[in-house]
Amino acid sequence: MSRHLPDAFVARMQATIPAAATVLAALADEASPVSVRRVPGRSYPLPPATGQVAWCADGIYLPDRPFFAGDAAWHAGGYYVQEASSMSMTQAVGAAVAAIGGERRDLRVLDACAAPGGKSLAALAALPAGSLLVANEQDAVRCGALLENIGRFGNADVAVTRADARAFGAAGEVFDIIIADMPCSGEGMMRKEEMAVTQWSEGLTRRCADLQRGIAAGLWRGLRPGGVLIYSTCTFAPCEDEDNVNFIISELGGAPVKLGLDSYEGVVRLDALPAYRFMPGLVRGEGFFIAAVRKEGDDTASGYPRPRRLPKVNSDGAVLAAQLFPSLTDSHIATGTDAVELVPRHHAEFIGTLAATKGVLLLRGGLPLASPRGRDLAPAHAAALATTLDISATNRIDVDTATAAAYLRGEALADIDAPKGYVLVCHNGMPLGWAKNIGRRANNLYPERSRVKKTI
After folding, report:
1. pTM (two decimals)
2. Is the pLDDT of residue 42 over 70?
3. Which pLDDT tens digit goes with each residue over 186-195?
4. Which uninterrupted H or E stretch holds 43?
5. Coil, strand, or helix at residue 36?
6. Same domain, residue pair 156 and 176
7. 203 beta partners
8. Are residues 77 and 94 located together in one domain of the fold?
9. Residue 285 half-sphere exposure toward CB, CA atoms < 13 A
10. Hey, is 26 helix, strand or coil?
């Protein structure tokens, strides 16, 4: 069914965008492509593919949208459902790493508007080992989705915060890379989300542009000299895209960074910046704009603020962590008060500083290991999916397809062949989550939020 696009939007596209007729026809008449991205470090089965995403080695297109919640590999964190154009963030982060200096192994990276988590996954694929990613979201509901998806990635070197993105400027010039996927008018999503059509107005684009400039200015204060700000939107509006990047360059003091996306057919480069547009009809993906700007100055001129230490782990938590995860190494430390987390040792004090920053709520300092459950400490769901833990010594059961489906719906498991206590439930070798075997049944510990709501 053809969509009626707003007349003023069509007129502006015709005046400002090359190949506007092709793009507008795609927005009005074509279906949105379905794509997923393999999670690094996992070799779980993927849905049948119809093609490869050109600019992302881990991205594939699907023939249609399946019921992802019915796939155990999705629950186990084997892949993430992500729009194809936005997968270009991996190359952008790789270019930012190179601009800073590829020899650095301890980068501190902020994904300022991270929910639901796809850009964070893209960043992790490009960051050198030893880097820390801080995934932030302001909205409380979207924070829940972000925590869930970050947990599925399995990486221990990720903190999650809830804050207005502008609050990070108060922490000082502390980040090497900041990803700012800005809240925008959503023009590039018009064929995927009906609201993007119905809510559109010229006034909305101007309000978004003003908001984006405020966020960019606030984040700029948190970027170290020599660091890189990656700016992206899912809109075509010049006031939200190249005008704001030019503002960062001219008013805040930055220099454009080449992102290396020139060789991909259909990706349009704005030579003056450089910046890039992905446009439906020209690429197999939604509308997306991306550019990067390096903060001028000597990175030795600024230092990290005085660190604040994270709280020490309580003794019960330390014992549980050692029992469940005997392979823990000195590269991480267990920390926490009630909950127990695995925090990268060389970033621990910095995470403590973030936790003490006004306006920033630290939701996750590292990989959750255990959390209170009544009078007990239960293993955290994220620990079951961790790629950085050796859980081969953990008690586990491998269940058939029907039992796995029942487990993912939240049902108790009956008469399992396992010792009493916490058990890792797996399907075809893929960890799904925890259960507590009490004898004749095993209580289901699969998170309520993630449980399947329909029969699979």
Report:
1. 0.93
2. yes
3. 999 999 999 9
4. none
5. strand
6. yes
7. none
8. no
9. 30
10. helix
